[in-house]
């Protein structure tokens, strides 16, 4: 749902504001993001890009949608989320260097082509008409609008020839098979409360909550240990694993990190 991503950014904004490493550096990322979106709607932001094919530089103006899409894409990623406040506040100050790098990566990806698999999966995974309508109703109230839901476009789904879900596939699942669900408290893609709802249909299911976890928590040794216990036959009902909060980068650190990764 759109407001899940909205709330995820609100949570992140609260954590960044209280970061002992950067006291008062990012006081309200959510509010600042809203402000630069409104500004980009009125006056798109100019960035300077390079086309690898023609080997020419060119200027491009990007509006609010690109900013929404970029930040939403970073939100579930624990390795990128620490850059969001730096990105937002740099754009707010008229510094487009971090935004330029993101738009350049998006441009390179589009020019190189991309797989339709992600759209095929999203289109076929099972959205009832009522849930789709609810997402569309929530979108105007979210700071991201409908940017996270391009894949719900019925025309796009028709173009990739995605299989349509059968009506019974939209029903809740009941199974006595042992299952382990792992949910990060900061994951906007598969939020914790939805995992708990799914678990209701698995009487032999276990549930691991990963505090400060994002979409990919398996790299954590603590999560790996619990998964290994489960696969070894242990009866895991409820576990809580606590990870460190996100490490937020200053604007200069974000710039330096981006340069070193190229």
Give an overview in words.
Helices cover 45% and strands 12% of the residues. The protein is an alpha/beta fold and 262 residues long. Among the domains are: 117-167, no CATH class; 168-242, no CATH class. The radius of gyration is 20 Å and the shape is globular. The two termini are 34 Å apart. The relative contact order is 0.14.
Summary of the model, kept short:
The protein is an alpha/beta fold and 262 residues long. The chain is 45% helix and 12% strand. It has helices at residues 2-17, 29-42, 64-74, 84-92, 97-112, 117-124, 129-138, 154-159, 192-199, 221-231, 251-260; strands spanning 45-51, 56-62, 179-184, 205-211, 238-242.
Class of secondary structure makeup? alpha/beta
The whole-angstrom Rg is 20 Å
Compressed to H and E, one letter per element, the order equals: HHEEHHHHHHEHEHEH
Shape: globular
* Percentage of residues in strands: 5-15%
Largest sheet: 3 strands, parallel
Strand order of the largest sheet: 3-4-5
Number of E-state strands: 5
Span of the ends, CA to CA? 34 Å
Low-pLDDT stretches = none
Helix content: 40-55%
Mean pLDDT: 88
Q: What's the number of helices? A: 11
Outline the secondary-structure elements.
Elements: H1 2-17, H2 29-42, E1 45-51, E2 56-62, H3 64-74, H4 84-92, H5 97-112, H6 117-124, H7 129-138, H8 154-159, E3 179-184, H9 192-199, E4 205-211, H10 221-231, E5 238-242, H11 251-260
Parallel strand pairs: 3-4, 4-5
Antiparallel strand pairs: 1-2
Helix pairs in contact: 2-3, 2-4
């Amino acid at each position: 749902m759109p407001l899940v991503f909205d709330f995820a950014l609100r949570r992140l904004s609260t954590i960044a504001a209280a970061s002992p490493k950067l006291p008062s550096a990012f006081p309200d990322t959510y509010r600042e993001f809203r402000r630069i979106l409104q500004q980009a709607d009125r006056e798109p932001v100019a960035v300077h890009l390079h086309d690898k094919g023609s080997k020419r530089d060119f200027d491009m103006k990007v509006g609010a949608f690109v900013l929404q899409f970029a930040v939403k894409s970073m939100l579930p990623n624990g390795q990128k989320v620490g850059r969001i406040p730096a990105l937002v506040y740099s754009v707010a100050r008229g510094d487009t260097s971090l935004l330029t790098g993101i738009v350049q990566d998006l441009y390179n990806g589009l020019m190189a082509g991309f797989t339709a698999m992600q759209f095929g999966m999203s289109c076929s995974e099972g959205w009832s008409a009522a849930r789709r309508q609810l997402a569309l109703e929530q979108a105007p109230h979210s700071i991201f609008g409908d940017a996270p839901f391009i894949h719900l476009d019925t025309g796009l789904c028709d173009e990739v020839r995605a299989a349509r879900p059968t009506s019974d596939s939209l029903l809740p699942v009941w199974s006595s098979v042992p299952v382990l669900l792992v949910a990060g408290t900061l994951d906007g893609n598969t939020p914790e409360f939805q995992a708990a709802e799914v678990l209701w249909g698995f009487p032999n299911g276990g549930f691991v909550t990963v505090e400060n976890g994002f979409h990919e928590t398996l790299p954590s040794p603590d999560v790996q240990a619990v998964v290994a216990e489960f696969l070894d036959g242990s009866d895991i009902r409820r576990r809580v694993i606590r990870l460190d909060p996100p490490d937020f980068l200053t604007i200069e650190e974000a710039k330096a990190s981006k340069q070193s990764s190229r």
